[in-house]
Design goal:
It is a single chain. This protein has 373 residues and is of the alpha/beta class. The chain has a seven-stranded mixed sheet with strand order 4-10-9-8-7-5-6, with helices on both faces. It has a four-stranded mixed sheet with strand order 1-2-3-12. It has a three-stranded antiparallel sheet with strand order 11-14-13. Strand 1 and strand 2 form a beta hairpin. It is globular and about 55 Å long. Bound molecules: pyridoxal-5'-phosphate. Pyridoxal-5'-phosphate (PLP) binds next to helix 5.
Length: 373
């Protein structure tokens, strides 16, 4: 057996140094502008869509909660269930039009914990081809059979369910509301029809829609989930659904049971962000308007959310574009496989209510040659 480092060195050789290797970079200021290695850039790669991460009320709520305790000290079922949770869960349930909510330590933990608690051997999980890794990981952890349907293709999902009818106990359809790397919206109304026709359950991950595009019929979706780390500018994840679902997850979701509660500051910040999101709908509207303007100026299909993908194809082209933009003090990350399908490397542009019009105009001017090329 080789020494661990020799083994790891060997395995890393399969990841070429230039185009696929992931590196960490130290950053500051997540919203509108970003500071990296002493330089300030206009920032179009974050998920702080509503510009709340530096909002005075959100920071103050976190700081106040921090005055009492920096950490929760235990899991929620032991002694970590501090009072900030209840206020946030009541607000999340109300906001998503569901009976109850449960907050987990991340969106990833919420999704893998829920899917693996609910589904098991003999069940079927049918996932959109572009569904986030957390849904796929949850499905694998559950032991259920995992099948995929072509992206947003409800007819294909129907065909898969039809073909395998009677071969499984329970079936769960999983998808995203707004797709994280493409910015398009899932046909939830049609998926509801499908799940009723085939007696399955539907789970929708709303990590990127929250506050920008709100699906009006959320209460009809069995399991609604999302993150506190993007539009809500904090950290954590949530699931909303019936009171029975939440009670079931309390008993069975292992990522909930066996993990320490979030610090009070994170929960208080998310609750404050949620109240601002509800009070100031202009924030989501502004992010969406910015995205629509960028698409129009670049001759792209109309934006459906705050996420605008500029698909360039090869890894090297996406990296070259990202580098050229950086030289103009614009920070737009290149997203490469395996995060996106092969040959669809892209610039993922995200717009925020925190962006000013002049930043957007600089972005458009700098990206234009890459779209035309
Ligand atoms: C970011 C994201 C998650 C994970 O949420 P975290 O709170 O960052 O763990 C889950 N699902 C989707 C679709 C996401 O984009």
């Amino acid at each position: 057996m080789p020494a661990l480092n020799a083994h790891l060195y060997e395995r890393l050789q399969s990841v070429p140094e230039d185009s696929r290797r992931q590196l960490l970079q130290s950053t500051m200021l997540p919203c509108g502008k970003i500071k990296v290695a002493g330089q300030i850039y206009d920032h179009f790669s974050g998920n702080d869509y509503l510009g709340l991460s530096q909002h005075a009320d959100v920071i103050q709520a976190a700081a106040q909660a921090c005055n009492v305790s920096a950490g929760a000290g235990a899991s929620r079922l032991v002694t970590g269930n501090h009072a900030h949770y209840e206020a946030l869960e009541v607000a999340l349930a109300h906001h998503t039009r569901h009976e109850k909510a449960l907050v987990f330590s991340s969106g990833y933990a919420a999704t893998i914990g829920t899917i693996s608690a609910l589904m098991g051997k003999g069940d079927l999980i049918l996932a959109d081809k572009l569904a986030h890794a957390c849904m796929i990981d949850g499905a694998m952890l559950s032991g259920a059979r995992l099948m995929r349907f072509r992206h947003n293709d409800v007819a294909h999902a129907r065909a898969v369910l039809h073909k395998h009818q009677g071969q499984y106990k329970n079936a769960l359809i999983v998808t995203e509301h707004v797709f994280s790397m493409d910015g398009d919206i899932s046909p939830i109304d049609e998926l509801l029809e499908l799940k009723n026709d085939y007696d399955c359950w539907l789970m929708v991950d709303d990590a990127h829609g929250h506050g920008i595009v709100e699906y009006v019929n959320r209460s009809s979706v069995d399991i609604w989930c999302g993150t506190l780390s993007k539009a809500l500018a904090s950290v954590g994840g949530y699931v909303t659904g019936s009171a029975l679902l939440i009670d079931f997850l309390l008993q069975h979701a292992r990522s909930f049971i066996f993990s320490t509660a979030l610090p009070p500051s994170a929960v208080a910040a998310a609750a404050t962000s949620l109240s601002i999101l509800e009070r100031e709908p202009w924030r989501g509207a502004r992010a969406l308007t910015h995205a629509q303007h960028v698409c129009k100026a670049l001759g792209l299909a109309a934006a459906q959310s705050a996420i605008v993908p500029i698909v360039l194809g090869s890894n090297s082209k996406a990296l070259a574009a990202s580098k050229a933009l950086k030289e103009q003090h614009l920070w737009v990350s290149a997203i490469r496989p395996p995060t996106v399908p092969n040959n669809s490397a892209r610039l993922r542009v995200t717009l925020s209510a925190a962006h000013e019009d002049d930043q957007i105009e600089r972005l458009i001017t700098a990206i234009k040659p890459w779209v035309a090329a």
